[in-house]
Amino acid sequence: MNTRLRFSIVFLGLILLSLSTFAQKRTGNNHNPVFEGWYADPEGIVFGDEYWIFPTYSAPYDEQVFLDAFSSKDLVTWEKHERIIDTDEVKWAKRAMWAPAIIEKDGKYFLFFAANDIQSDEEVGGIGVGIADTPGGPYKDYLGKPLIDKFYNGAQPIDQFVFHDKDGQYYMFYGGWRHCNIAKMKDDFTGFVPFEDGETFKEVTPEGYVEGPFMFIRNGKYYFMWSEGGWTGPDYSVAYAIADSPFGPFKRIGKILKQDPNVATGAGHHSVIHVPGTDEYYIVYHRRPLSETDGNHRETCIDRMYFDENGLIKPVKITFEGVQARPLN
User: Fold this and answer.
1) pLDDT tens digit string along 122-167?
2) pLDDT at 142
3) For the segment 167-219, what is each residue's pLDDT rounded down to a tens digit?
4) Active-site residue among 43, 211, 228, 303?
5) Could you list the residue range(s) of the whole structural domain that residue 235 is in?
């Protein structure tokens, strides 16, 4: 067999192998990660008949200057919406845009994000807000300045989550550096309304809390979740508590998401998607492939989340398979 023929056969074999791998990925054997690229801190949500994920673009802070978003009709096939907001639009933000949170109100979409990774009250940065007419943007800087730019109760102003309570009130949970605050938002999201005792930022930090708060209601109970450990390490994880109000008290129950030495490490900073009108819940989170040691090499994944007969969250099994197609209509 001459060299040219041998090369052609090898080349054809590589093409067929590539096509086979692609087909396997597309036919449902492996759906994690849900989309390509290094993305972390994913906020998953349902808008109408579409699922959306708003993640951090996981890169060194000086390159982390924009946010992308992804939409899907079925949790499996995702469309990328590039640079829905960036530091060219948000003049006070210079770097480290991360951990977006999203809410729709009165036909407008409000995108909350942290920027600049400030380390003191003297620095410019903190939590900002973008506004758009569609979930995919483009978003404009809503305030022209940070919404929160100070350290209240020791909480770094990052990792915000906007919670819509059943009485219609919106609250913001946020905080890094092992402190979490809750604040009552104004109707137009331009600021906060003090509580009856005069405080604006109340600390609700549970045992083990590090960052990444998230809340949802199920059967009248408030499930409060957060991340523990260091985000660059293998032991990053998610724990939770259950309370009768959004103010707690939040007694830690235990971890429900963590690394699997056969799958990935650093599984954390999550959100939860609830399929409307059902008892189906999906956990959206990031993790680090076993082959990666770079702290920024994180990928976004989805797995099912289940409850036991007492309403406790069962430990989540992180998988390569992910979830099957789940259209909303």
Assistant:
1) 999 999 999 999 999 999 999 999 999 999 999 999 999 999 999 9
2) 98
3) 999 999 999 999 999 999 999 999 999 999 999 999 999 999 999 999 999 99
4) 211
5) 43-257
Domain CATH code at residue 49: 2.115.10.20
Instruction: Report the domain count for the chain.
Output: 1
Residue 33 lies in a domain: no
Share of the chain above pLDDT 70, in %: 91
Active-site residue among 41, 159, 299, 303? 41
Q: Is 211 an annotated catalytic residue?
A: yes
Q: Which among 63, 13, 70, 20 is positioned nearest to 43, based on CA atoms?
A: 70
Cα–Cα separations (whole angstroms), residue 57 to 47, 96, 217, 323: 22, 9, 29, 23
- Please report whether residue 230 resides in a domain: yes
Question: 104 catalytic, yes or no?
Answer: no
- pTM given for the model: 0.91
Residue 234 in tokens: 């293998």
